[in-house]
Design goal:
The complex is a heterodimer of chains A (175) and B (125). Chain A is an alpha/beta fold and 175 residues long. Chain A has helices at residues 16-29, 44-54, 75-85, 100-108, 121-169; strands at residues 6-12, 35-41, 58-62, 90-95, 113-116. Chain A folds into two domains: 6-142, Rossmann fold, CATH 3.40.50.2300; 144-174. The termini of chain A are far apart. The model of chain A has no long low-confidence stretch (mean pLDDT 89). Chain B has one domain: Four Helix Bundle (Hemerythrin (Met), subunit A), CATH 1.20.120. Helices cover 70% and strands 3% of the residues of chain B. Chain B is built from five helices and two strands. Chain B has helices at residues 17-22, 27-53, 57-73, 80-91, 96-121; strands at residues 2-3, 9-10. In chain B, strands 1-2 form a two-stranded antiparallel sheet. In chain B, strand 1 and strand 2 (9-10) form a beta hairpin. The chains are: A alpha/beta (175), B mainly alpha (125). The interface between A and B is medium-sized, with 20 and 24 residues.
């Protein structure tokens, strides 16, 4: 990956110590891979305000977003909002519960990955992030190839069309 | 100096090795996280205390849960079983007396951790 490629990551977790540590850790770990920009939010609502402007490639979302503020939306509700606003954003769901139901629920709501907050959480998040960056990069390359192929096909069609038109209208030009 | 649950003497409650490694030794990042810890932990303890007075199991459960992340970053591993037990008791909405007892242990260790972080922060300026 080109070091100039910009990757925007949103972190949503109501624990400031955790988000600050994760943000710093990601910036340190990926600084040689790409131009990573990480923004942290304490609530899903604050994240969604900025989400529509920036459309980040990746969002890291805590499942328990309403532990401090019971009125705040939970992780699954924010996951749905994110997917509705931009289906291309990959979401890594975080939770402290090693619970298969939460994992399945996250995947049913189109999360790309699910990480349990154990002692190795930062390593697991980085691994997941690395994979998602690679997938995003591959998707962008495919999109670029498709666009180039489309432009070439249109150009070729125009040339063939022009040759046919000239053959019909003024065949002497081709002699 | 205090003892852990197995009776072993503990000199320091925090282990900043993990945080230092994770931040690649970058002092300003470590200091930022320490500052955030020093602000957040007293607020979280206060919220748990208030919830115990009101016997609000939901709030006790939520804050015990979120504190696990904060303390693990500072390497206060001896608090993890305490917080787990508090969270489990609060989730089943029972035994407020045991929760009070665990909260005393939590408060004591958190205050020691705060003192240590305040002292160690000087090294990261």
């Amino acid at each position: 990956m080109d070091k100039k490629t910009k990757v925007t990551v949103f972190i949503v977790d109501d624990n400031k110590v955790f988000t600050l540590a994760l943000k710093s850790e990601i910036e340190v770990a990926f600084k040689d891979m790409c131009r990573i920009e990480v923004e942290a939010f304490e609530t899903g609502e604050a994240c969604m305000k900025k989400f529509k402007e920036e459309k980040p490639q990746i969002a890291i979302l805590d499942y328990h977003l309403n532990s401090k503020n019971p009125d705040a939306a939970d992780g699954i509700q924010i996951l749905d909002m994110i997917k509705k606003a931009n289906a291309d954003t990959n979401v890594i769901m975080l939770t402290s519960d090693d619970n298969i139901d939460i994992a399945l629920k996250s995947f049913h709501h189109e999360a790309s990955d699910y990480v349990v907050k154990t002692e190795t959480k930062f390593r697991k998040i980085n691994y997941s992030l690395f994979n998602l960056i690679k997938i995003t990069e591959a998707r962008n390359e495919t999109k670029t190839y498709k666009n180039v192929n489309f432009i070439l096909a249109v150009f070729l069609a125009l040339v063939v069309g022009a040759v046919i038109a000239v053959t019909i209208i003024k065949p002497s030009l081709l002699k | 100096m205090i003892t852990d649950r197995s009776g072993k003497l503990i000199e320091n409650v925090c282990d900043l090795k993990y945080l230092t490694e994770m931040m690649g030794g970058k002092k300003h990042l470590i200091k930022g996280i320490m500052d955030s810890f020093l602000t957040q932990i007293p607020e979280e303890l206060q919220s748990i205390n208030d919830a115990i007075v009101k016997v609000d199991y939901g709030v006790i459960k939520n804050f015990s849960h979120t504190m696990k992340s904060s303390v693990s970053i500072m390497g206060v591993s001896m608090l993890i079983p305490v917080l787990r037990e508090m969270e489990a008791l609060a989730a089943s909405a029972m035994n407020i007396e045991k929760i009070k007892e665990l909260n005393q242990e939590l408060t004591l260790i958190c205050h020691l951790a705060i003192e240590e972080v305040q002292r160690d922060k000087e090294k990261f300026i």
